[in-house]
């Protein structure tokens, strides 16, 4: 039988997951909730048989799995409430914004023993798997490090503007929302990272999120991760992670586009999926089903997500 799923938070990610869960045989969305009635109305049209809950607690009661796509601040309370009722939990990233609260949440979820994972969307995808295989077989040669480059003309981007909290310093920003994915990818490739230095810049309006960020991190062997992010200027979005090797390097653009270089131009390793986002979410849901069945899977663990959160929040705190 399909896993009965409640979705709490019906903004961009909640609606995307609702759409893709509705197409997946292992999941049935049985309850939806968001404090915004307009978001609920939109989601109800997408899943007319789902229970439109009156509260987060009501949604949790109607499911075996709770997917938390709400902003970071309330996730701890909802996750623990679900786990206390024996419900599995799938959390959006970042894990949270307060490191101490996230540590408490991770400890509580582990103690309660329910299946739990975090939706770093590259975890189960082909690029991370293929890059990991190339490292294992020696196809990259000696690893040299990772470069992360993220640039946007505007933040939030046009399609994100309905999620107004993304523009504020307390919970939003490109570093939490996007760069966290690429630090997760880097840790899967290089192992745990330690921050060496960082600098983040903010606008004059003190409640708005960062506009520029730079950082250098090292793994246990001293291999560097170099990070640069910026907002501003007429340009297309640029989202790149380059895994550098002495023989070949791999560049993942826009989360799923994998390309290889042996010193010349980067050349795609294969055909780009017709719908890259749907392909990535399908892989995540396949592995979420494995997680719920107690089988090995490639989803991000709570500990991995907590490590990434600590790095992100430390980077954002290093400002002048």
Principal-axes geometry comes out as globular
Strand content: 15-25%
Please state the structural category. alpha/beta
Q: Tell me roughly what share of residues is in helical segments.
A: 25-40%
Spatial order of strands in the largest sheet: 8-9-10-7-11-12-13-14
CATH topology assignment of the largest domain = Dihydrodipicolinate Reductase, domain 2
Ends apart, CA distance between termini? 54 Å
Tally of distinct domains: 2
Query: How do the SSEs run, as a string of H and E?
Result: EHEHEHEHEHEHEHEEEEEEEHH
Q: Unreliable segments (pLDDT under 50, ≥5 consecutive)? A: none
Question: What is the name of the CATH superfamily of the largest domain?
Answer: Dihydrodipicolinate Reductase, domain 2
Q: Provide the gyration radius in Å.
A: 19 Å
Total beta-strand segments = 14
Mean pLDDT score: 96
The CATH architecture classification of the largest domain is 2-Layer Sandwich
Task: Supply the number of helical segments.
Answer: 9
Task: Provide the CATH top-level class of the largest domain.
Answer: Alpha Beta
Sheet with most strands: 8 strands, mixed
